[in-house]
Amino acid sequence: MRTYIAATTISPSGTGVAFTRDPATGDKGLFGEFLTNAQGEDVVAGVRTPMHISEMEQKFPEAFAQFVEVCKTLEDHYRDMQDMEFTVEHGKLYMLQTRNGKRTAQAALKIACDLVDEGMRTEEEAVLMIDPRNLDTLLHPQFDAKELKAATPVGKGLGASPGAACGKVVFTAEDAKAQGGAGEKVVLVRLETSPEDIEGMKAAQGILTVRGGMTSHAAVVARGMGTCCVSGCSDIAMDEENKQFTLAGKTYHEGDYISIDGSTGNIYDGIIPTVDATIAGEFGRVMDWADKYRTLKVRTNADTPADAKKARELGAEGIGLCRTEHMFFEADRIAAFREMICADTVEEREAALDKILPYQQGDFEKLYEALEGNPVTIRFLDPPLHEFVPTEEADIEALAKAQGKSVEDIKALIASLHEFNPMMGHRGCRLAVTYPEIAKMQTKAVIRAAINVKKAHPDWTLVPEIMIPLVGDIKELKYVKKFVVETADAEIAAAGADLKYEVGTMIEIPRAALTADEIATEADFFCFGTNDLTQMTFGFSRDDAGKFLDAYYDAKIFENDPFAKLDQTGVGKLMDMAIKLGKPVNPALHIGICGEHGGDPTSVEFCHKIGLDYVSCSPFRVPIARLAAAQAAISCKG
Ligand code: PEP
Ligand code: MG
Q1: Rounded to two decimals, what is the model's pTM?
Q2: Residue to mutate (ligand 1; options 324, 329, 506, 566; most atoms within 8 A of CB)
């Protein structure tokens, strides 16, 4: 328990909180706050805005000198930035507490690099000091520098948690949660925050408080969450009751736009556009270390050349999953795809697919170009066909016209695609079994695109990886693979090209994991689709589980969402089993994961331990996966 000495107006006393390095930027040097004639809670609660720690030097020179000495001793001992609480009574210093200080992601990177440069930590230790999840904040957009230059701040507080936020003003945590949860970008403006505001703070893009310093509740919590925060803007005249505030002569109401800069503390009227962040400086240095120590490769899930390019910038070493169905939704192809669905004969279906082929080939060419010879895994059509049919009356009429059919016929066809449980219905490789022409068209597109790109870049190793989804039985894979290989080989022969390609499968049905020794005889690679594997192992619908998972957390049945954090005990056991069954049969088999778990740090660690070759995740999680993979490699080495 902390004991604070009550200060009086006559005794030279005070209390403070200080860090040995700046928790927002990581800059070396004493950083903190001090209040004379106060108790410790007054600093933490943000009730009074405290003075900078340097002022303590003037008020209590001896205690300050001693404090500086103590800081150095503590930092040398713990080999990390310290967060300390202290009090001064009648000029005498009392240390109340020290601990490793919480810090922003930006500060964590700077501190880790500085500790290496100061000889206090090794590179491996520095890599282990950073929480991969926090990197997320650095990958979030910053204000567009040009737009920012042109903008004039209307107020200034403390830059308590970096990043840029722009959104509609809300005044209560409940409103932040309701509007933020509905997809609205909001900035939560409060006199000060308290623990019951947490949910609203999480839902907000940024937090702006009237009171409080760098160690106030809002500042500490926002830094922990990686949310942009400006605290202690005392120029704001707040009228909480009427949900409005006045700043620089303007009254802001709920729904008005403001922009805040959590690094400078500046507040702006209206919307300032943001730009994507890049990996440079200390961030780049730590990522270089991560790449040096990790053994797991990191790929990305990308369906568009833009996603692929972004992921490459963020360090992706290949595409682990291209969900080709996303390409069919684009305006210029959906009509042909619907024609394909409505076709009565194989010939009609092929005619519609012929229209899509050039688009698909073009898409793949752009993906290969973006990946510059790194591996690209293309997953063949997976979702049930009903996802592609029109729902609007006008679109149904247009389709009927294009098909020369009646609206009733089209409606009947749409109704016939209805399934009681579509996620376990006519999807995945089952589509290729019933309509081989779809997989044949996709094969042609994959191979023709690769031949073209290879011609332009003969030095690139371009070995397209064709991935068949939702296989549960070796015979399914064999059946589909046969015509994929026939089509691919015919294309290569016709072009007189020299091209290698691979055919592999997702392991996303428990039966596929259980029979992986059989499946490995036909597969060049396995990729764990842990979204479906989790769904089918638990028997939880991945689209509906959110409705009951809260009750599971409350009842302490689950601690985490198994769709976000891999269930190592059950789903993980199936993965481990599949590797152990598959590898001895086919030692060349390469194995990855492309479910959502591929970007979750603890799941990445598990993937390292069971011997996967790569994880694949969304572009913005690539740096997180790179760091998590390095941490797993370093920790496992012991
Ligand atoms: C999976 O099931 O994990 C997967 C990556 O495929 P999708 O999410 O497209 O079903
Ligand atoms: Mg799947």
Answers
A1: 0.82
A2: 506
